[in-house]
Write a structure and sequence with these properties.
Layout lengths: L12 E8 L2 E6 L2 H11 L9 E4 L4 E4 L4 E4 L7 E6 L2 E2 L8 E2 L2 H17 L4 E4 L5 E4 L6 H10 L7 H5 L6
C-alpha cells in the first residue's frame, strides 16, 4: 500500500467559545449546525458577509468574522472556530481546539509525515509547547498509556481529531 494513500484528512467540526466562571469553554455546535457551517465555508464563495443561522435560528454565525451573535436577546458575541486539532493542558479538563491557522500547520505537517513516512517532526505550539509527531504504529503502547492517563498526545492523529467533541 502506498504511504500517500494512508493519509486521510479529518472532517472538521465547528465550535463556539463561551466564558463560563471567568474561563473560556469551547462548545461544539450540534452536528447539523456544524455541517451547515462547513458547507457554507466550503462553498467556494467568499465567507465575508455570509451569515449562517444556528441553534434553531436563535443565533447567527457571521462566517467571515468567525463570530456568533444572539438574534432575539442581548448577549455577548462569541468566537467561532473550524476545529480539527485539539490539546489538553495540565489544568484543562476538556480538550481545547487549536487556532485554525495552527491547526492547518499541524495538518500539513501530519500529511507530510504520513505520505513521506518521516516522523519525529517537531513543532512549537502557540502556547510554546513542543509537539512531536510520532508514527502511531511504532508508538501504540505510548498511545494507550496516554489514553489511560488522559494526557494530551499527538501520537495518534485520529485520537485527537476524533475527540469526544467530534462524535
Amino acid at each position: 500500500m502506498d504511504a500517500g494513500s494512508l493519509y486521510e484528512p479529518v472532517s472538521p467540526h465547528w465550535f463556539y467559545c463561551k466564558i463560563i466562571d471567568s474561563k473560556e469553554t469551547w462548545i461544539p455546535f450540534n452536528s447539523e449546525d456544524s455541517q451547515q457551517l462547513e458547507e457554507a465555508y466550503g462553498s467556494g464563495k467568499n465567507c465575508d458577509g455570509r451569515v449562517v443561522p444556528t441553534d434553531g435560528g436563535r443565533y447567527d454565525v457571521h462566517l467571515g468574522e468567525r463570530m456568533r451573535y444572539a438574534v432575539y436577546w442581548d448577549e455577548l458575541a462569541s468566537e467561532v472556530r473550524r476545529c480539527t486539532w485539539f490539546y489538553k493542558g495540565d489544568k484543562d479538563n476538556k480538550y481545547v481546539p487549536y487556532s485554525e491557522s495552527f491547526s492547518q500547520v499541524l495538518e500539513e505537517t501530519y500529511m507530510l509525515a504520513v505520505t513521506l513516512d518521516e516522523w519525529k517532526k517537531k513543532l512549537e505550539s502557540p502556547n510554546r509547547e513542543i509537539i512531536i509527531l510520532h508514527n502511531p504504529k511504532e508508538n501504540l503502547w505510548k498511545f494507550l498509556q496516554c489514553i489511560y492517563n488522559y494526557e494530551a498526545c499527538i501520537h495518534c492523529h485520529h485520537f485527537l481529531l476524533h475527540s469526544p467533541y467530534t462524535k
